[in-house]
Design goal:
By secondary structure, the chain is an alpha/beta fold. Helix content is 46%, strand content 17%.
């Protein structure tokens, strides 16, 4: 499928989706959000894709924010719809994908860019990465899940400071905060993500999808995460992957998971 604002490439079990608007520092607009939704859906539904990596084109930015020109004249109802639609199509959507999704954060990840990275299942940053939520400097707040996901990842106090000051933190500070899992040299970033992907792919994709569901349940209002875990754990016993995994263990061989 052809896209105007992104690139999607499959190789050896990994689909790499690249936001490709370098002249705009890969800023998110409505068309890009829709294209990301489409590409993520296709990758998630393809049995061959075991891991998705999301990154930005060029060396300057992962995603430098939302495209402000699209909404600078919006009223209250339009602003509310913008946030709701974006969360539905992309940010909540990517968080709940059954396919593991890694954000390869190269350069600036600001506003909607950081919100996109936080919606992914975990993050690896280049050593020149800068992250922040500068929305209050524009008279608005993060609207794509930033006020919810940032405190979950770094704690309430640090999130409050980052949001209120509209400041940026560098990759090492993000690592210290727990906002990213690893920091790599920029030229090594994608290879490092692919190396992690290879480790993930050794395991049961069915079990991983169930684990994602159970972990996310802990952060969902009105849902008992322990109950979701029990149900997901039990469901694994009815899968071909469980039979293969336990049989391989008992036979002292490497499992060859069918993904069913």
């Amino acid at each position: 499928m052809s896209y105007q604002n992104i690139l999607s490439e499959f190789d050896n079990g990994v689909t790499t989706i690249t936001i490709n608007r370098p002249k705009k520092l890969n800023a998110l607009n409505r068309d890009t959000i829709q294209e990301l939704h489409t590409a993520l859906t296709i990758a998630d539904e393809e049995h061959e894709t075991k891991v998705i990596i999301v990154t930005g084109s060029g060396e300057k930015a992962f995603v430098a924010g939302a495209d402000i020109s699209e909404f600078s004249d919006f009223d209250v109802s339009q602003g509310s719809r913008l946030a709701a639609k974006g969360q539905e199509l992309l940010f909540d959507y990517i968080q709940n994908l059954g396919t593991p999704t890694i954000a390869a954060v190269n350069g600036f990840a600001l506003g909607g860019g950081l919100e996109l990275a936080m919606a992914c299942h975990f993050r690896v940053a280049s050593n020149n990465a800068k992250m922040g939520l500068p929305e209050v400097s524009l008279g608005v707040i993060p609207g794509y899940g930033g006020t919810q996901r940032l405190p979950q990842l770094v704690g309430k106090g640090r999130a409050m400071e980052m949001i209120m000051t509209a400041g940026m933190i560098d990759a090492n500070q993000a690592l210290q905060y727990g906002l990213v899992n690893h920091v790599k040299a920029q030229e090594e970033l994608l290879d490092a993500c692919k190396e992690i992907a290879q480790k993930i792919m050794r395991n049961s994709s069915v079990a991983i999808a169930k684990a994602i569901e159970a972990v996310n349940a802990n952060y969902t209002d009105g849902v008992n995460g322990f109950e979701v875990e029990v149900e997901a754990f039990g469901a694994c016993f009815g899968t071909e992957d469980f039979k293969e995994g336990t049989t391989a263990f008992l036979e002292k061989r490497k499992a060859d998971f069918p993904g069913k």
